[in-house]
Each structure stands twice: as structure tokens, then as C-alpha cells.
Amino acid sequence: MIATLGTTFLRRPHGAVWAADVLRIATLVSLPVATVGWGGVAFAVMSLALLGAVVPRMLGLRPTFDAAVVLLCLVAAWSSALDWYTTVFLWDKIVHVILVGLLAALLVVIASDVGVVASAPRAGVLLSALVALAAGMAVGSVWEIGEWLGHNFVDDTIVVGYDDTIGDLAADGLGALLAGFALPWLSRERRIVQPMHLRG
Q1: What is the gyration radius of the CA atoms in the chain, in angstroms?
Q2: H helices within the chain, ranges in order?
Q3: Which residues form a coiled coil (predicted)?
Q4: Which burial class, exposed, middle or buried, applies to 57 when counting CB atoms under 10 A from its CB (0-12, 13-18, 19+)?
Q5: What's the CA gap between 185 and 94, in Å, rounded?
Q6: Of 96 and 186, the one with more pLDDT
Q7: Which are the contacts of 133, defined by CB distance < 8 A and separation ≥ 6?
């Protein structure tokens, strides 16, 4: 999978891949729109969303999983621009659970592909859950550091604080753990990863 990132990314879309590609286009269009309308912080967040939209296609993930990652990255980015995290009750935590769960699963897929960890079916439920939990906490920690840096050096309206950080990390861990428990079953059902370059 990793060895064919370029060719996999440039493959012609077919079937359900079209849905994910439409979301990728929406993310690309959102970048200048959010930048003009909401400024530099929105640009940075939407750029991360665009990265999250590109990576699944490069890896040739199963279209449903691909679309889910792109959609959640786009929703998360716009939620930041539109300030939903502070105005919609529990929205921040819901997005953390779902998005970080998907990203943790994505990291486990990449790690298993390069041979760092065993694939989910071989590793079993418990080990897959623990690896996904570690991946999710790593993603969450990097994000919280980014929020702190943004608050202190870019825009002090970015919400940080002990309770917010601990709550976000707890939601990250929950989402990653749930994704980890689901990984072996999802892999057996071939609903997470389908190397598209093997499908022509």
C-alpha cells in the first residue's frame, strides 16, 4: 500500500469512491472560502482537513471508510470556523470521539501495512484495541498541544483549559478504544481496508 501511494491517489474513481472524491472537492473549495471568511486560524484548520482528505485516497482505503474520514475532517474543520464547539452542547466531545476513533483506526492500518504492528485479524481484539487507544491518545495529545500553541501565539479566542483538555483526551481515548475493538471484525469483513491498486 505505502509503496504505491502516488498511483493509488491518481487512480480513476469508480463506484463509491466518487462520494469520497466529491467530499474531497468540497474540502478543497472550503479552504479559500474559510480563509477569506474566517481568517488564518480557519486556514490552518482547513489545511489539516485537506490533509485528512488526501491521505485516505493515497492509501486506497475502503470507500466507505475513506468517505467517513473525509466527511468527519470536513465537519470538524467547519465546526471550528463556525464556533460550534463552544455553542453546540457536547458537539466538541462527539466530534472528538468519532473523528479520533477514525484517525486511530487509520494509523493502525498504516502501522500494520509497514509492519510496525500486526494486522488487526492476527493481533486479536484486545491488542488491536490497545494499539488503537495508544494511537488515539497520540493524535489527541498532538491536537491539544496545537490548541495551546494557537491560543498562546496565534489567537487567544481558541478555547483551552484543564477541563477542556482532559475532557477532549477522554473523548479521544473512548473513540480510539471503540475503533480498536471494531478493527478485527471490520478487517475480516473487508470494510476498512481494500487496497484499491489491487482492484485495478
Answers
A1: 17
A2: 5-9, 17-38, 40-59, 63-81, 84-87, 91-113, 120-123, 125-153, 162-188
A3: none
A4: buried
A5: 23
A6: 96
A7: 104, 173, 176, 177, 180
